[in-house]
Design brief:
The complex is a heterodimer of chains A (311) and B (172). Helices cover 29% and strands 29% of the residues of chain A. Chain A folds into two domains: 5-130, Beta-Lactamase; 140-309, P-loop containing nucleotide triphosphate hydrolases (Rossmann fold, 3-Layer(aba) Sandwich). In chain A, strand 10 and strand 11 form a beta hairpin. Chain A has 311 residues and is of the alpha/beta class. Chain B has 172 residues and is an all-alpha fold. In chain B, 83% of the residues lie in helices and 0% in strands. Chain B has helices spanning 2-47, 53-63, 68-80, 87-97, 106-118, 124-171. In chain B, helix 1 (2-47) packs antiparallel against helix 6 (124-171) and helix 2 packs antiparallel against helix 3 (68-80). Chain B is elongated and about 70 Å long. The two termini of chain B are 13 Å apart. Classes of the chains: A alpha/beta (311), B mainly alpha (172). Chain A binds chain B through residues 9-10, 12-13, 74-75, 78-79, 81-87, 89, 120, and chain B through 46, 50-54, 56, 79-80, 82, 85-87, 90, 119-124, 126-127.
């Protein structure tokens, strides 16, 4: 994906001009843009990372690279927040903010502590702009295979960076829109988007396509959010990202009693690994999930290793 | 007859000039006062509703009269279009577009520019301090301008009439 207007807008003139002078073919496929104080400007693609040259273009040699100054970072922060840093206090506290278009920016710096935990970040020293990937249609096959005869409780597992969230998002979109070809009717879906990665909300509005019948609770803790959705939005399916721990298991159990189907993801290498983790152990022993989808990275992110049917 | 008419015209003109200068003195005080009002409104938009600046500016511009109205509207649009790397740059550009309509002097413009260079760059605590400091400075400048106006108001008006009469007397 080349850099969209929403991304270019946040860069100060110096950085924007070196990026503009770089061949679009070199930029295509960028997954992350790394900005670190007094270090070279870096883009990360699936085949490794590259520095951006002072005169545009990409290189592996850091001697010719554009060096990011503290001032550049300050200016990016100003632009990203519409010159209104104070209106992004909560986001800073969490260490990330979402741009228009659903792109995520991770932020590190010096943390300022208060009694309740982290109060804010200052002296921001590095940014990681993660370009939102939305692969529409990547779930068609899975959806057809698993859901054409009804929705099932599903857990998607894989190590980080294998496309769990991307797959989950597309499953949500497919089930929410409905798809005649796959013999799926549209379902009401509630998404608890604790880390803002599924729908990538900017000021509360989903920036990525999560379907016509989807309600998103942005930045809400999963356990609270599941109860809120159950009470208020009457969903048929609840989708959550990265579950783990006993609290989540309990909330999911209650949702189950309310007759709602669950689609969730979790970090894990293999099915055997997750079987013994607290929280999951009980869920799997009680036959909570009906289907487990295991992803890996062998043929690029999103490769489906296997689909395990438990019932 | 012609002489009398000419004399009257000269006296009227110089009187008007005197009144115009006194109007300028008054207008400057008005602008400074409105600026303080604008900052108060802005402070509540920012501190209590944490609105981003372009929203706060365009809301604010509805409550103001010219030339501040145009300035804040221009600022809101420039921010939305990312027309500068810092808010300070954006302010300087926007202000230069409306410069002739403001009667502010270097000292006052500097206070404003300082205000804009820290606006939006910190958390709410820092913003509060910025507002307090700028309000104090503006209050001082307004008092100074008002004093100057009171002291010179009558003087320039009389001087206008008197200089007109003087010219006529010399000419006759």
């Amino acid at each position: 994906m080349t850099l969209t207007k929403e991304i270019m807008e946040i860069f100060p003139e110096d950085i924007a001009s070196v990026l503009k002078r770089t061949d679009p073919n070199d930029i295509r496929g960028t997954q992350e843009i790394r900005i670190r104080a007094n270090k070279p400007l870096m883009i990360v693609k699936s085949d490794g990372d590259f520095f951006i040259r002072i005169n545009g273009g990409i290189t592996h040699n850091s001697d010719y690279a554009y060096i990011v100054e503290i001032q550049d970072i300050e200016r990016i922060m100003q632009r990203m927040t519409n010159y209104s840093l104070y209106s992004f206090e909560d986001e800073l506290r969490n260490g990330y903010l979402t741009l228009k278009g659903g792109h995520r920016v991770g932020i590190v710096g010096r943390t300022v502590l208060s009694n309740e935990g982290i109060r804010t970040l200052k002296n921001i020293s590095a940014l990681n702009i993660r370009i939102a990937r939305e692969i529409k249609g990547c779930s068609d096959e899975v959806v057809k295979k698993i859901y054409s005869d009804g929705i099932k409780h599903t857990l998607i597992i894989s190590p980080p960076g294998c496309g769990k969230t991307t797959l989950l998002r597309d499953i949500i979109r497919n089930l929410s829109d409905g798809n005649n070809k796959l013999n799926i009717k549209g379902y009401r879906i509630g998404v608890v988007d604790e880390r803002g990665e599924i729908a990538a909300c900017h000021q509360g509005i989903p920036q990525l396509d999560v379907g016509l019948r989807t309600d998103v609770l942005d930045a809400c803790p999963k356990t609270l959010g599941i109860y809120m959705l159950l009470r208020s939005m009457g969903p048929e399916i609840i989708a959550v990202d990265e579950i783990g721990g006993l609290d989540d298991a309990k909330a999911l159990h209650d949702a189950l009693k309310a007759g709602v189907k669950i689609i969730a993801t979790a970090h894990a290498g293999t099915f055997d690994e997750i079987k013994v983790r607290t929280g999951f152990k009980e869920m799997i022993e009680n036959n909570f999930f009906e289907v487990i989808i295991v992803l890996n990275n062998k043929r690029g992110p999103g490769t489906i290793e296997k689909i395990i049917k438990l019932t | 007859m012609l002489k009398i008419a000419g004399g009257l015209i000269i006296i009227t003109a110089s009187t008007l000039i005197g009144f115009y200068i006194s109007y300028l003195l008054y207008e400057k005080v008005r602008q400074l006062r409105e600026l303080q009002y604008a900052l108060q409104v802005l402070e509540s938009e920012i501190i209590y509703s944490a609105e981003p600046l372009y929203v706060a500016f365009s809301n604010l511009s509805l409550k103001l009269s010219e030339p501040l109205k145009s300035l804040f509207l221009d600022l809101a649009n420039s921010i939305k279009e990312f027309q500068g790397d810092t808010l300070h740059d954006i302010f300087i550009n926007s202000f230069n577009r409306y410069k002739e309509r403001f009667l502010l002097e270097k000292e006052e413009i500097e206070v404003l520019a300082n205000f804009f260079s820290s606006l939006g760059t910190s958390d709410l605590e820092g913003q509060k301090k910025n507002f307090n400091l700028t309000m104090k400075k503006l209050d001082m400048l307004e008092k100074k301008a008002d004093e100057k106006r009171q002291k010179n108001d009558k003087l320039v008006k009389y001087l206008g009439i008197a200089s007109g009469i003087l010219i006529v007397v010399i000419l006759v």
